[in-house]
Every structure is written in C-alpha cells, then in structure tokens.
C-alpha cells in the first residue's frame, strides 16, 4: 500500500468538506439543488441574524466581509460533525477518475475519522499527531505521523488541511466571494494562497443562511477533488472512542516514519 492513497481520503477535509461542484463555479446538480432549496431558504441575513447591507446583497467587498464573518462565527461554534460525503477525484495526467462515498466524523480540535464505503472499505484515523489508514479486506494498516504525511505531500496541502479551522483559511489566502447564479442559496468562496500563487485553488459553496461549507472543489496541479457533504449532523454527541484505532489481530502494520 502506498502512502499516496491517503491523498483522496484526506481531501475530504476541505469540505465539510468537506463536503464537490464544477471547477469554474460550484454548481449543484438539479436534484441536489431541489433538495437544498427545500431546506435552505434564500436569506439576506447573516449567520448572526442581521440584515445584509445593500452592498452585501449585490456583491463586492460587503458580500466578502459578510461571508468571512459568517464563516468565522460558524467555525467557532462547531464542536462535532458527522456527515455522509461523496467525492470525485480526477487525475488528469493519468486520465483516471475515482468516485468515493463514505462517512466523516470530526471532534474539535483535531480528531477525525473517515470511512470509505465505496469503491472499497477503507478507514482513516488521525488526531493531527498520528495517522492510520486501515484496509479491512487486505488486513493491512499504514501508520505514520501527521508531520510525515504532510512532508510526503511536498507541502502542497499545508494550510488547507486544517479541518475545523476554516476561518484561518481566510487569513492565509486571497479570498473572493460571489453569489452563485445557478443556486442563489449558495455563495461561492474562492481561495488562493497569498505566498504561493497558483499552488492551488479551493472553492467552497457556502450556505447563504449559516455559511456552512457544504461543497468544495480543490484544484492542485492537474488533480481536481470535488467533495459534497450530505445530511450533516452538527454538534451531535460523539464518543471519543469512535476516533481510536487498534489494529485487529492478524493485521499487517506498515510503518512510515519519513
């Protein structure tokens, strides 16, 4: 098992991923848009319930500031999250595509569990110190440190893998916000790194009511990862034991230290 298999698994951290959309502009499918419209009414209020200034309604700096403020407010209130997700990974250089479905569980500040259900079962556990990837069908587990994993990724994802700390992204990146014409109950926030322009582009689809980032599209080099969160449960009671991994008897454990 190569350490690179962790990349698609951890990319879901961006959406809460999380949670996909098109590269140019995140556009939910017609079916998804219909469901979302039923759940999220178009609103001119911020996450705190204040009416938007006319400049915020029409776009520009007012809309950007309102979105950043709302994202920070939502971010500060998040303690736990449990959600299903779907993910499309396009490796354009290799001409390969991968579809992933699973369940993501998160507890502030750093506990994360990602369970892939399709195409094959795979579990990822991390506390931002240690990282495990377990494949039950192969009776094999990879163990590495969070620092070693980030080093293995050549720094490409440094600063954008801080799940549960989306507000910090707005300080490390150039930010633009526009209303999504195809889905007015969504705002599209685009982030690009201030220090390394062109390294990546991250687009988040934010709810216009509470700024929850329900969809994301990450472009790095010639790889695009689109993630959508489905039926998220925010701040539900979660047991810490859910995030603890002990290799089952007979599991082959592969250690990656560098």
How is the CATH topology named? outer membrane lipoprotein receptor (LolB), chain A
Strand content: 35-45%
Sheet/helix structural class: alpha+beta
Overall average pLDDT: 74
Taking the alpha carbons of the first and last residues, their distance comes to: 15 Å
Query: In sequence order, what are the helices and strands, one letter per element?
Result: HHHHEEEEEEHHEEEEEE
Characterize the quaternary organization of these chains. single chain
Strand segment tally: 12
The second-level CATH architecture is: Clam
What gyration radius follows from the Cα positions, in whole Å? 18 Å
3D shape: globular
Structure annotation, total helices: 6
How many strands, what sense, and barrel or not for the largest sheet? 12 strands, mixed
Overall structural domain count: 1
How are the strands of the biggest sheet laid out side by side?
7-8-9-10-11-1-2-3-4-5-6-12
CATH class: Mainly Beta
Q: Catalogue the unreliable spans.
A: 1-58
CATH superfamily: Lipoprotein localisation LolA/LolB/LppX
Describe the structure.
This protein has one domain: Lipoprotein localisation LolA/LolB/LppX (outer membrane lipoprotein receptor (LolB), chain A, Clam), CATH 2.50.20.10. It is 20% helix and 38% strand. It is built from six helices and twelve strands. It has helices spanning 6-11, 30-39, 54-58, 61-77, 146-152, 166-172; strands spanning 80-91, 96-107, 111-118, 122-126, 130-135, 140-145, 173-179, 186-193, 200-207, 213-220, 223-234, 252-256. It has a twelve-stranded mixed β-sheet. The two termini are 15 Å apart.
